[in-house]
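Worked example 3 (structure in, sequence out).
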């Protein structure tokens, strides 16, 4: 997933706590192996080589992520689209071809409607697709890691942090610190939470070097135009996969569409501007001036 992962556990004994930590990391490794767009043998890599209208059986976890991605795609009018992999490869954000020589241009024609999810963890493509789950898989890994840690008897408190995608479930409220998306050495206290998930996207650190220069790997739907600058956003939701995906919806969708998606999942959004901290997103344009930080907790 190209990031660091921190797991903190409190259990009835050090031995049980270490066992819970091991299980959490095993879940993260499994998600990486299944959903990496850089591995031709992952489910995502296999999909890139799959012929249209030929069902492919994948792992139930991958099928679950694709199903959630499909729901968010419909709610967002296609703003969130896991078939963006072809466009990412053209920009140099992913390896060219995806295991199929000369396919980058062909992959760019795909949309989320070209993926049919079938029973028994099968998938059928309507056209060649380069799937990329980078906008949701990290959050899903955090969710599965927390779930795995709690399979160990005696586990009472778990915090999972994967590069800023955060999930907490503890008996006492924890301070939630948000990294400033424009100054990586600055943090803002977002409040207290005993149970919840938080994901962030955008800001200066979202920009990477592509074949077109510095730009973010986040594109406007349909146009294929990648954003060169974005505000920083944080979404709080019940699950980290949801929070992860909804950050992209918030960044790109029209305000009414983003509001509908957040309401569907009972999620809350914060927006940050350079040097001005975070504030609650109130449903307006992300280009509106932002100058205050909410005092109430997450």
């Amino acid at each position: 997933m190209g990031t660091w992962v921190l797991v903190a556990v409190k259990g009835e004994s050090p031995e049980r706590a270490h066992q819970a930590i091991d299980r959490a990391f095993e879940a993260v490794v499994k998600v990486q192996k299944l959903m990496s767009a850089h591995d031709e043998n992952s489910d995502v890599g296999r999909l890139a080589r799959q012929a249209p209208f030929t069902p492919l059986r994948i792992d139930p976890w991958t099928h679950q992520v694709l199903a959630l991605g499909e729901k968010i795609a419909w709610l967002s009018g296609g703003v969130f689209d896991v078939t963006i992999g072809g466009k990412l490869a053209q920009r140099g954000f992913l390896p060219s071809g995806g295991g199929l020589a000369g396919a980058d241009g062909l992959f760019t024609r795909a949309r989320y409607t070209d993926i049919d999810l079938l029973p028994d963890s099968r998938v059928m493509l309507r056209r060649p697709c380069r799937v990329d789950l980078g906008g949701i898989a990290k959050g899903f890994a955090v969710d599965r890691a927390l779930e795995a840690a709690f399979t160990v008897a005696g586990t009472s408190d778990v915090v999972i942090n994967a590069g800023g995608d955060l999930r907490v479930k503890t008996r006492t409220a924890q301070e939630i610190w948000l990294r400033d998306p424009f100054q990586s050495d600055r943090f803002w206290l977002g409040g207290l939470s005993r149970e919840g998930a938080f994901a962030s996207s955008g800001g200066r650190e979202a920009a990477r070097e592509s074949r077109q220069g510095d730009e973010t790997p986040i594109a406007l739907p349909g146009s294929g135009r990648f954003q060169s600058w974005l505000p920083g956003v944080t979404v709080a939701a019940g699950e980290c996969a949801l929070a992860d995906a909804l950050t992209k919806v918030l960044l790109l969708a029209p305000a009414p569409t983003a509001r509908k998606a957040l309401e569907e999942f009972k999620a809350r959004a914060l927006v940050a501007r350079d040097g001005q901290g975070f504030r609650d997103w109130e449903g307006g344009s992300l280009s509106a001036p932002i100058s205050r930080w909410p005092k109430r907790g997450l």
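Notes: Confidence is low (pLDDT under 50) at residues 208-213, 287-298. The helical segments are 14-35, 43-48, 60-75, 85-91, 104-107, 137-149, 240-252, 255-264.
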